[in-house]
Amino acid sequence: MESKLNRSVSSTIGWITTTRIEALSDGVFAIAMTLMIFNIKVPQIPSERVAAELTRRLLDLWPHFLVYLISFAMAGVYWVGHHNQYHHIRRTNRVLLWINIALLLCVTLIPFSTALLGSYPTHQGAVVLYATNLILVGLVLFIHWHYATSQHALVDPDLDPELIRLASRRILMGPALLALAIVFSFVSTQGSLVLCGVVPVLYILPGRIDRYWKPTSSE
Amino acid sequence: MESKLNRSVSSTIGWITTTRIEALSDGVFAIAMTLMIFNIKVPQIPSERVAAELTRRLLDLWPHFLVYLISFAMAGVYWVGHHNQYHHIRRTNRVLLWINIALLLCVTLIPFSTALLGSYPTHQGAVVLYATNLILVGLVLFIHWHYATSQHALVDPDLDPELIRLASRRILMGPALLALAIVFSFVSTQGSLVLCGVVPVLYILPGRIDRYWKPTSSE
Amino acid sequence: MESKLNRSVSSTIGWITTTRIEALSDGVFAIAMTLMIFNIKVPQIPSERVAAELTRRLLDLWPHFLVYLISFAMAGVYWVGHHNQYHHIRRTNRVLLWINIALLLCVTLIPFSTALLGSYPTHQGAVVLYATNLILVGLVLFIHWHYATSQHALVDPDLDPELIRLASRRILMGPALLALAIVFSFVSTQGSLVLCGVVPVLYILPGRIDRYWKPTSSE
Amino acid sequence: MESKLNRSVSSTIGWITTTRIEALSDGVFAIAMTLMIFNIKVPQIPSERVAAELTRRLLDLWPHFLVYLISFAMAGVYWVGHHNQYHHIRRTNRVLLWINIALLLCVTLIPFSTALLGSYPTHQGAVVLYATNLILVGLVLFIHWHYATSQHALVDPDLDPELIRLASRRILMGPALLALAIVFSFVSTQGSLVLCGVVPVLYILPGRIDRYWKPTSSE
Q: Fewer beta carbons under 10 A from the terminal one: N or C of chain C?
């Protein structure tokens, strides 16, 4: 265990560390996830009609809350993925920083897509834009992992290649299903939305990659 | 003291650490707590009527500020609870991450419930939704603690079972009282709100759990 | 130097550390400071009148920008004070956490007071509310420092009592001057605002406390 | 490597560390970058005209998204610069803290300039204000670096003077080009905007400074 720790430390000293890019990313994710709720406005009703109308007006907001739930879960999925990548990434460089900033750019667009789809949940164009945004985040996250791990450039030299492959495949599952949701939206926008909602569930379920979350018994 | 530190370190190495879930959580709590104030709008009054109307219009905002105060305090209560839990939690896994993300989802809904109750403080439905939101946060926080500590899965093996029990009971006190507030809202919405305001006060007062905040004398 | 470090470490182990309250506070300060700008709205002008009106409409916003500048600087002053306090505070407890949360509550009110004063810069009531808000932050910050240092409860046992006194006096300078600004607002709201603007300048200038920012030569 | 680490540690102990100013800065950058998107509003269209109008109304938003892209990239450029500076800065003092807070003030103005230019992309005054804001951020970042490194005041004593020079020149490239964009705006606002968009690209491309991102072979 000692030597493993030493190796990790020695692969960090002198390099630009990952602390601050993780802090910036955590900030952007936290803000995007929290602020989406501010796009859902409390209905303003004159006091004499509150008793009659408030409940119905709140129920009318359900598409907003539904899309909010999916967006929050997908942001969570991508945050967990980002977190896991930096569990293995030891140092950073200019290219990785900018791939990460591109990732954050795509994440900040999610509140816009979410508000759009919440306002027009039956409009196919809104569904397509929404799914495209989520696909973009996933693809940039894939590029991020691919760049960091190819020839073990920014990870520990002994990182298991099997883990690298498993993680890559896992990241691409989301964009693939969301692309399917776009195709499906030409048939049924409702069915397409259901498919979007299934994606985070698949990521939340345990996967084969989970055994890499704990120390191997040999250590 | 040395050996205690070593045990803590050895129960962390190789596992996914809790640093980033704490950072994301701190971000979401900080944003939700700070942004609620942006739902309270400065009254816009034509300049010739400012002198006559501004004071009264500001005083009209009092329900917003009162609900803001309760929400801020409850968010503080839950943040302190979250903070204390991670004082003992040593490592994380997929399930705990997702329980935490569910917790954050419930936290981000607080600004909406707060704006709703601030707009309609005498409407029973608004009181019920508000209390339900706060109950949800508390229940997920309880599940979070229960999952992390059952069979000492993610905490130190020698964590005092008495502390685990005390903390569980303490977390559930809030949801229990808030459920009472919901029942009471059928009689009086004002009384129900008073009860909601008492809950954070009970948490702020010192409790039996506080002796676990400092090192035991035997160390 | 070694032994100083050891003493610091031993006064931390087993206690609740200050990392997360600092993180939550940094988050709240950062959000309050950044979001005030979102209360200043870009003027919406029909395209045929943009050339004629935009410059004048932007210049009309100057009270908002002026108050923004003062608020940002005062938030900076209080953040620097908070930062300096935690440079010396080694551990935390329930009471300190809640004093800190009360501090953050007062900080989150600054954007509201700022928007109010930006909208009604010549209205005495707005000036009084604004200064009162800033006074509150300062007083809670003083209570925070007083609680942490009395009988060296939460700081290193050998922290210089002279530093404790100097810092206390320095914190109270702001609230004292702002109280003067409130009194002065009965004579002239403009003069009162000038006084508010002088306060952060006094804090930014170097002070006697600065020699505690570097290691003493004896170490 | 050992001794290098020791030197770094010994130049930190007893001084005010940079952790929290980095945390506050990361927070402000993250919020400014994420919140700009909330200035782009989803078009509100009556349901019977959605099919006919939504696509066109979304396309009408393109200037907003274009300016958003430039602002996000420039914020990223300045954040990377800030990050790199603190890779070398070992300790802080009152002056550096306040230069940093002035930097953050300029950063928080970016969302306002962005919304202004997004609303009036062909108005020369909006272009000038926008470029001026970005220039200000760059100049304060230069002052920040200059202050920290002159006589190696707040950096390691053996920091390569060549790196200090290279970094200074690199920081000033942006403000110089943006000043050119202001001059050019008197001829063509469109050409001026193109120039603004080129600046972040130049920073993203690899530069001579990149060899300082990794440990020198002699270590």
A: C
* CA–CA dist B105, B162 (Å, integer): 30
pTM comes to 0.91
B–C CB contacts, 8 A cutoff, strictly below: 100
For the stretch D98-109, pLDDT in tens is 999 999 999 999
Residue percentage of chain D with pLDDT more than 90 = 73
C79–D109: do the CB atoms touch at under 8 Å?
no
Q: For a pLDDT cut of 90, what percent of chain B falls above it?
A: 74
pLDDT reading at C217 higher than 90: no
A72 contacts in B (CB within 8 Å)? Answer: 101, 105, 108
Find out whether B180 and B155 touch, Cβ atoms under 8 Å: no
pLDDT in tens, B151-204: 888 998 889 999 999 999 999 999 999 999 999 999 999 999 999 999 999 999
Distance from CA of D184 to the nearest CA of A (A): 29
User: Where do we find the tokens 């899309």?
Assistant: A67
Contact B67, B121 (CB under 8 A): yes
For residue range D78-99, what is the model confidence (pLDDT) as tens digits?
999 999 999 899 888 889 999 9
Domains of chain B with bracketed CATH: 8-213 (1.20.1410)
The ipTM value here is 0.88
Q: Spell out the SS3 assignment of chain A.
A: CHHHHHHHHHCCCCCECCHHHHHHHHHHHHHHHHHHHHHCCCCCCCHHHHHHHHHHHHHCCHHHHHHHHHHHHHHHHHHHHHHHHHHHECCECHHHHHHHHHHHHHHHHHHHHHHHHHHCCCCHHHHHHHHHHHHHHHHHHHHHHHHHHHHHCCECCCCCHHHHHHHHHHHHHHHHHHHHHHHHHCCCHHHHHHHHHHHHHHHHCCCHHHHHHCCCCCC
CA separation for the pair D107, C53 (Å, rounded)? 27
How many CB atoms neighbour CB D42 within 10 A?
Answer: 21
| Bridge partners of residue B16, in order along the sequence | B92
* Residue A86 CB contacts under 8 Å (≥ 6 apart), including other chains: A18, A22, B20
- Whether residues D40 and A112 touch (CB distance < 8 A) is answered with yes
C79-116 burial code (b ≥16 CB/10 A, e <16): bbbbbbbbebbbbbbbbbbbbbbbbbbbbbbbbbbbbb
- DSSP per residue, D114-134: HHHHHH-TT-HHHHHHHHHHH
pLDDT at A219: 36
Whether D217 has a pLDDT exceeding 50, the answer reads no
- Per-residue pLDDT tens for B128-143? 999 999 999 999 999 9
Alpha helices in chain C (DSSP H): 2-10, 19-35, 50-59, 62-88, 94-119, 124-149, 161-185, 189-204
